[in-house]
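Summary for the steering committee. One of the milestones for this cycle was to obtain a three-dimensional model of the protein with zinc ion bound, which we needed before selecting residues for the alanine scan. The sequence and ligand used are listed below.
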Amino acid sequence: MGIGGQALIVGVGGLGGSAALTLASAGVGRLVLLDHERVGPSDLGRSALLGTDDIGAPRAGAAAARLGTLFPKVEVVAEDRRLAPAEALGRFSGAGVVLAAVEEPALQFLAGVAALRAGVPVVHAGALRTTAQLLTVRPGGAGACLFCLFEEPPTEGELPTAQRVGVLGPVSTLAGALLGAEALRLLAGEHGAYEGRLLTLELRSGSARSVAVPRRASCRACAPLVTGTGPVAAGPTTSGEGLPSTAAIGHPERPRPTDGSAAISAQLLVPGLGEGQPRLAQARVRVIGAGPSAAPALLSLAQAGVGLLWIDDPTEGSVDPPGWLHHPAAATQRGKGAAASLSTLRASAAAAPYPTGGVPTATLVCAPTVTEALAAAEQARRAGVLHVVMERDADGGSVVVVPPGAPCYACARSASTAWRPWQPAGAALACLAAAELVMGIALPSPVGVRVDLARGVPTVRTTTRLAGCSCAAAKAVAR
Ligand SMILES: [Zn+2]
Ligand SMILES: [Zn+2]
């Protein structure tokens, strides 16, 4: 397996799990999953890959087993151990890209510096509360590495962690899908969207920032790569010699909550979202579409604790490419197949085919065509129901959020009438749509927004009404 076909993922929790699904959907030749933890109850709230039956099993092995079922053609290697400084360099040198999807700062920094030394691009990702962050570092590039930004890895307890302050499951899955899409760009030899740019996506305020972060000339970690006098110029070693801050790396394992329910509530307890949790638990969400483009959204909604998922897709049989939820060999009615897969993966998930005439709390539109999307959105608008419409575009697409009374989808949609076929990198768009819907249910806002996702970078703007549109007659619902 040559470079370009192998991705190494450090950490297969929420972030690493959806990144792995994105890469496997794209048919990446070989995936190496490195994780030393075991599946805990809190993983179920974040991971699109791990299921109820996996609790207690090694995360790497459980993730590899599920990927093997969904994507039998992809070679998946599970390594149930903690990344160690002494072996990191040798471990990374054959990879086309390294995905640093681990929460522990010491391991993020170790993955970053070892990838630099091994001459492999690395993508760092993190998710906390309702915020996702991504940064790509290419060896010898002009952009900052983690050491340029922080100088030293933060010590344990210095930074908030999802384990302590919580993370909204769909935000973690979204960050992982963006991470996977970025890794695909790098494997294809393209410029990374987050190279020298730190992306911060804040779902709660609905803002996205992509800020240039140049390399720091005095940085100990990446400066030698540029001048050509550092350890890389002398060839990779396996000793880990010359890696900065080895003292801070490899500290003892974090204590994890042992009580299952406490762990679940800790990760769902996002400050300010307290009252939103019961709203999600009571919600009935109708999802239109259950093909590969909708599967990441269905998983995200189940993670968020949505009370009931009504899956509306009567398509018979399956000609789909493999998706996040079930393999096309499982030929059945799509809606029923997706509901069955979700229930298998999450014992707590309530999913059923949409009952004709059922009135949902909110609707997610993942329709295959513009015409069907317009019809579904209009039906939801007339019913006075929050709806989010996903439209696939050249490299990403758009998500339109329509709360009751806001400019309708016809007012806010793209001028383009031809949607692109589903691409593996499009999983990020489905995750974004689901995350927007979850935020809209948990913390209702009367403002309609449109998020354009182009090459991994979202742009958020408020929607406006077209002159003369009949949606102006609708009464805005005061919240
Ligand atoms: Zn640096
Ligand atoms: Zn309108």
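Key point for the committee: The longest strand covers residues 386-393.
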